[in-house]
Amino acid sequence: MKILVVENERKVGQFVERALTEQAYTARLVGSCAAARDALAESPYDAVVLDLGLPDGDGLDLLREWRTSGFNEPVLILSARDAVQDRIRGLNLGADDYLPKPFSVEELLARLRSLLRRRGAGARVATVLEHRSVKLDLLARTVTREGERIEFTGRELALLELFLQNPNRVLTRTLIAEKVWEASYDMETNLIDVYVRRLRRKLEPPGAEPFIRTIRGTGYQLA
Amino acid sequence: MKHSFTLRLTVRFAVLVTLTTAAVLAAGGWLLHRQAMASLVDLHAIESEELGEILEAVLRGAGDVGHRIKEEADSDFALFYIQVRDEHGAVAFRSTNLGATLLPVLAGEQGDYVVELPGAGRVLISETKYGVWHLQVASRLEPTERMLRDYAKVSGLLLAGAALLSVGLGHQFSRATLRPVRAIEATARRIRADNLSERIPVAAGHGELTALINLLNDTFDRLQRSFDQVQRFTAEASHELKTPLALARLNAEKLQARLAADPEAGALASDILDEIARLNRIIESLLFLAKTEGGALQLPRRDIDLAKLVAEFADDAAVLAEDGGARFTLGRNDPGMVRGDPGLLRQLLLNLLGNALAVSGEGGAISLESRREAEGRELVLTDEGPGLPANQLERVFERFARYEGTVRREGGGGTGLGLAICRGIVELHAGTIHAENRPDRSGLRVVVRLPAA
User: Are residue B320 and residue B280 in the same domain, yes or no?
Assistant: First the structure.
């Protein structure tokens, strides 16, 4: 998998490049619109990580250019600009995902993986999600632990579904807010933490090992 | 009230036209009257001259006054009253049409005067002296007066017509006058955040209005400049602040992973991550406020089912309140729509709830009501906290306002911008927000009013 990283800030770019290389991707870092055009003209890439504030132009113009010229691989926007407005514009122009700075490398990798997978396999629809002894039936909207039924509210169910669908992935607060509350920004409350605590209370019997791990400063992950 | 200017202009025009017409008609009437009197006086003069010749002939001894006049001027009696007196004032001749009436002597010598004669109405008498004779030639003024009355009647009708017509014309006139102003208004209305570059066109024939248009366009220029400045500033500030923050976060995360074996150092790395997150929130909030205050925020607006949004929020609020040891209840939740951004409205409610939770004691009740009012929608969040001193009620919505005694329970600490953000969001939705102490007990009520969709 070859990934093009278009990032003006060299240090941030290098960080991303290194993280991608560690994950066995082939990454190439460029720092301007011109270099990005050249790189894409030279060889095909499977995905692009695109910063918007480039020295010789706007990343959104680059995106528009690519999309009109038939470049269809996933593009993930990485931007330090205003989240809400740029996000809407970016997605309208054909970006596949949007990650505001400051971001977590874990989250960037997870989102990239999901973009690449979405393209590759097509959606495999599971109706029952499982983790350890917990089973979530997506059709019946029921949860059981060791065969025993547990009552869940709508939001709790949505949150659990998100965890079960991403078993190996750190879920950041931003991502959880986005997927469960459809909020495109930090909600500035401990709402997510409170809901995670409720999940834990229901799914972790006293004395049992944790069902959800806290990754401090970042988010949560299934244990 | 919107059309009161048109109305005023119409009335003014109509009054002006009517008064002018009235003045012209009155002047016409006066001239007509003068003209009629002058021609009567002229006729009297001619008649007097003719009769004077007869009288002088009589003086030279040519017969009797009465006979001579009857012979010479009989046909004139149809037109004039004629009376001749001698030097003693005795009547020497009276035309038959006078009957028993005597023409009164007023001037004595010569002159024209108007008197009221019984049976004949007002008459104009011209008196001339020929030797010993006082000759009086008189005419009834009735025909002249009738003509003037007719003139007045016609004038009245003309005036009424003119008044009616001028109201109609005045309305057209004022509309035509205001048309360029309306065009200016329509353009000015269209100029909003999303098309700030539009300007009011300066058309030929606008004359004096051109100055106003230029002034307005200059104002729009300034508005656009400051708007662009806010946009540029927030974009640049965002980039400049967040890039180092991104790097700091990436490094801290890496550090945290490496320090997994050393809990104490790992905790420090985690603290750094928490503070980076907080700093990021503050930056986001400040940029958001800068944009709302600069009028530079454009969000896609849509119709939102407020009752649904409130009900969904209530579920989360109950969970948050329970976690904070308080109780949340949703009171009235009237159906209704508002226009705006659902994410921002949810953020507004979450911020208000966060504040209420921060001041609520164990088991404190927090309630939310969403009411349909005549003016729009009203959201009221009530808590049982200590309330606020009167001088703080307005200030809490300012940036970094912190009231002493507020116990912040949030893990990372608040940004001090929560209520300022609330006000920003409410103003983006063309609404109002204010806080008041509860009258029944200690506690705060925050009232948000939003216009109905």
Answer: no
Residues B30 and B116 in one domain: yes
Domains of chain A (ranges; CATH) run: 2-121 (3.40.50.2300), 128-222 (1.10.10.10)
pLDDT over threshold 50, residue B411: no
Residues of B in contact with A191 (CB under 8 A): 316, 319-320, 350
In tens, the pLDDT along B44-85 reads 999 888 888 888 887 777 667 777 777 776 677 777 888 888
Six-digit token string for B246? 């991104």
Binding-face residues of A in 21-50 toward B, CB within 8 A: none
Per the structure, the complete domain to which residue B48 belongs is given by 4-148
Does A195 touch chain B if contact means CB atoms closer than 8 Å?
yes
- When mean pLDDT is compared across A37-41, A81-85, A100-104, B148-152, the lowest value belongs to A81-85
In a domain? residue B144: yes
Place of tokens 């054909």: A94
- Domain assignment present for B191: no
| A187 has a pLDDT exceeding 90 | no
B15 and B100, same domain (yes or no):
yes
- For residues B2 and B9, what is the distance between their CA atoms, to the nearest angstrom? 13
Looking at the structure, do residues B319 and B413 belong to the same domain, yes or no?
yes
Whether B155 is covered by a domain: the verdict is no
Chain A interface includes B392 (CB < 8 A): no
Domain end (from B119, B148, B177):
B148
